[in-house]
Amino acid sequence: MSAAAEIHGTCDPRFAAVRDAFAANFTDQDEIGAAVAVVADGRLVVDLWAGWADPGRTRPWQRDTIANVYSCTKGMTALCLHRLVETGRVDLDAPVARYWPEFAQGDKGRIPVRWLLSHRAGLAAVKPMLPESALYDWNAMTTALAAETPWWEPGSTHGYHAVTFGWLVGEVVKRVSGRSLGTFFRDEVAGPLGLDFHIGLDESHHGRAADLTMIPMPPPEFEGPRLAAVIMSDPEGVAARAFMNPISLAHGPNLPAWRSAEIPGANGHAGARDLARAYGVLARGGEQDGVRLAGRETIDAMRTEQSVGPDLVLGVSTRFGLGFMLPQDAPDTRFGPGTGSFGHPGAGGHLGFADPEAGVGFGYVMNRLGPHILVDPRATRLANAAYETLGA
Hints:
By secondary structure, the chain is an alpha+beta fold. It is built from 13 helices and twelve strands. It has helices at about 15-30, 70-85, 95-100, 115, 140-145, 165-175, 180-195, 225-235, 240-245, 255-260, 270-285, 295-300, 375-390, and strands at about 10, 35-40, 45-50, 65-70, 270, 285-290, 290, 305-310, 315-320, 340-345, 350-355, 360-365. The strands form four sheets. Strands 1-3-2-12-11-10 form a six-stranded antiparallel β-sheet, with helices on both faces. A two-stranded antiparallel ribbon has the order 4-5. Helix 5 (about 140-145) packs across helix 6 (about 165-175). The longest helix has 15 residues, at about 70-85. The chain is globular and about 55 Å long.
């Protein structure tokens, strides 16, 4: 049991249940520092933060504190590609090799773009071990992926492309737009919406970034899936390679090299407010304050099921649309009660999602990472509290 935290920010009185749930995460879930935000019908109704930006509890979590949100970055990466699809510059059913000719190596010439977004391309990892330096070298990673042969027959099943997703999707964006994924995101999404969301964090912002704990091993009583066991069961298998190739002794989410690199499957930096605002726009049709992110048909495509069932990488059942995770079957892995929600969790517990039926955008970030593979109970508690107010 931890001490109560001083809660900062604003909260519409109707959403007091979210504030109470947020406070409870500090008292009974050992939260160190965190933020939660909810957008309802285009209005920011919850914007709260509390605790400390570092495990040593020397830096208070501030309004402008940002955190590495890990795979929450995938949703924003997918959004960039969808913007090119909407403008007719990319065809989801065209071969990836149309835009990235080198990708045709390894008998991959017929893999369509949509399989990159739906984790069906069989490129969840690179088989040959790569040098440590490759983690921060865009060209090294895209060259290795272009030369790779798929781990399974593309399109036949799916497996979570934990980190490679960002390089694969990002290279298509780069080839078509002439801009890196981080630059495209800044120009087309974050800048127009005024989001404090970065894929490739400028050094001038490093001091605002929260320091994250390591993802812990699950305790003996933990009842959820154990990714570490899947990885250790086959050190040369796809899961081990997906999360550990390349791996650098100098790697860590708190290090300058990680923060500055563009690794769009895993290292976006943002606050809860920014996740909620981006998804809040998608939840209300894709346009707000004169800024258009996507049309309704595109948003419907984002959340149309593409992959479902046993995941060859994570060892659990997963469900994906086009670049976004969809609510899973188990109640504790859903994004609130809405069945039409879509978004993405991030390793350790971060979560961002949109619920178009309810008109809700949700964001939660923190720095004490948990062991859950999909949705963390802390995020579930907060989302459910928001829906209590909405009467869902």
